[in-house]
UniProtKB/TrEMBL annotation:
Gene3D superfamilies (alphabetical): Medium-chain alcohol dehydrogenases, catalytic domain, NAD(P)-binding Rossmann-like Domain
Molecular function terms, GO-annotated: oxidoreductase activity; zinc ion binding
Segments crossing the lipid bilayer: none
Domain Enoyl reductase (ER): 11-326
InterPro entries in UniProt: ADH-like_C (IPR013149), ADH-like_N (IPR013154), ER (IPR020843), GroES-like_sf (IPR011032), NAD(P)-bd_dom_sf (IPR036291), Quin_OxRdtase/zeta-crystal_CS (IPR002364), Zn-ADH-like_protein (IPR051397)
SMART domains given in the database record: PKS_ER (SM00829)
Classification via PROSITE patterns: QOR_ZETA_CRYSTAL (PS01162)
Pfam family membership, one: ADH_N
Name under which the protein is recorded: NADPH:quinone oxidoreductase family protein
Amino acid sequence: MHAWLCEDPVGVDALTWKELPTPQPGPGEVLVEIKAASLNFPDILIVQNKYQIKPPLPFVPGSEYAGVVQAVGEGVKHLKVGQNVACLSGTGGFGTYTIAPAALCMPLPDGFGHVDAAAFIMIYATSWHALMDRAQLKAGETVLVLGAAGGVGTAAIQIAKAAGAKVIAAASSPEKCALCESLGADSTINYSEHKPGPALREAIKQATGGRGPDVIYDPVGGEFAEPAFRSIAWRGRYLVVGFASGPIPSLPLNLALLKGASLVGVFWGDFSKREPQANAAMMAELAQWYGQGKIKPVIDRTMPMSELKAAYAHMGSRGVMGKLVLTN
């Protein structure tokens, strides 16, 4: 097998494409022939030694992938050789084969292609857990999605619309705003025109008739957080999803008091471990929604696995709309 190996987590340039022995699965594991793997924001952080999870060196990055089971380890009953699966295991995806924990593998129904499957679990699980579980989103409420043209943002638009909410999508260019509208967003805010601060607050005020959004979905952080939180509706829920812009913001907590608002942390990874039955039920519902056509990953482009470094560069340029997927 071949894989991109991180032997020194100082950045993307240190990754090397190496031939390695094809491993065999141990108890509770499966060997997956990787057909597609998506690039997620944590995949950038982990090779820079900036992610909260620091795997032992050397490791193969690539948190999310899809492929075909080629061997099963002892005790694995729900998967068989030849079965199509998707998996989000945190590492191992940027190669031709990997060992995956069987418990983390999602069996794919007929018609669920590898490219869509490789771009599915992280964004839809995160967005469903955020909106439906943590925010308890109700039909008729208004959701503001920041970073709406990215992977989790596009998933959040689709889930919120399927739940009967009104969606305001904020993105950084006319092209990204147009994408959000094509996914069902009721209105958009281009924050290259409405900069973080009073201009962004005014745009949110106009989009909500002065009331403010009931739920704010924020995977961006940085300078967008405070003006967005200042705009939230009474009893609003501010979802802390991530910090794609880099800086972790510091919010004046008196804003939560004045708005009767909740600041809600979203950590799907720990939710899936601490509440596995609830997570399994969520994933089953999401797979059903995919089959019904309610949700479908937005694929920015597919690239050969050998072009991983170029894919990282494209993602770093913030030009990605939806998900980047690497294929073997």
